[in-house]
Amino acid sequence: NKQVILKHFIDGAPKESDMVVKTSSISLKVEPGSNGVVVKNLYLSCDPYIGSRMKKFEHPDFSSFKPDSPLEGFGVAKVVDSGHPDFKKGDLVWGTVGWEEYSVIENPEKLFKIHHTDVPLSYYTGILGMPGITAWAGFYEVAAPKKGEYVFVSAAAGAVGQLVGQFAKLMGCYVVGSAGSKEKVEILKNKLGFDDAFNYKKENDLDAALKRCFPEGIDIYFDNVGGKMLDAVLLNMRLKGRIAVCGMISQYNLSQHEGVHNLMNTLIKRIRMEGFVVFDYFPQYSKFLEVVLPLIREGKIVYLEDITEGLENAPAALVGLYSGRNIGKQVVLVARE
Ligand code: NDP
To answer: Which superkingdom, per the lineage (predicted)?
Structure first.
């Protein structure tokens, strides 16, 4: 069983050398009397929180990985043996698995069964999985959008951001995205339907860039990055604006977080700034599927994926998230069905 093992706790951004790919043996049969399942992993999802779990840290929603053990994350898998009455050999599932070819899942109740296979299976790591629910809940529930509002999304060409922008367009909003390369900016404008986009790495003055894109200000900021961008956005929010705090990737690998200076605008402009965590919305998964599956089938939404082949290339794929190497959702193909 090939596995991606964490060598040691890290400081700062993950490097490929913090992980090693090793092979060990595994039984593909569940232990007699066990309620667990054994799965063959097909796709693994690279998500920014995985790098955080490589650090020694305290977090209410998840724990640090253990050195000398495989990483974990969301994945799409096929059941190869089951001791659980709700799962049988051949079932397709998504949920938390190890970064390895085969995983033993002791509590399969947390896995979601995949019933719809007319869409790519890899979508269950992205648009139909955790990042999809994040975009849906963060935009519709937290940001509470109205038709015609001005929406800004950072990390807009990523797993979550590309969906937020498309949801906002479907809602009749004006949408601008920021991303870290010329190629991503072109994709936002030409493939994902954003009204405008800019490369934040090429802007000396983020406040000026936002004023150029939003002469009348921003109603909704879907924040994926925090830091300097959040500070500049605060200067450009409209009265009664909402900031959905989804992520702050620019801060995750800093030993000291950058200060935000323009918070007084939340008072003056009556802004609601609200963080959210996707796990709170997992119980609404079937409602989410009812909304998003038809959008995919009817071609009203597209989803860009960046698929890396081979478990041995998973460390590089993960590391790439923190420099913006991925265009769209970063997935690792471990095995075909
Ligand atoms: P992405 O697919 O967007 O990948 C991460 C992207 O972040 C990179 O491609 C890069 O794009 C950008 N980035 C990396 N480093 C920086 C930096 N220092 N400053 C600015 N941008 C940077 O990831 P996801 O869509 O999976 O996640 C987006 C955000 O949502 C993350 O902050 C993540 O932690 C958060 N999240 C929160 C959840 C919740 O429950 N609240 C659930 C899931 C995700 P670029 O080229 O634009 O720089």
So the answer is: Eukaryota
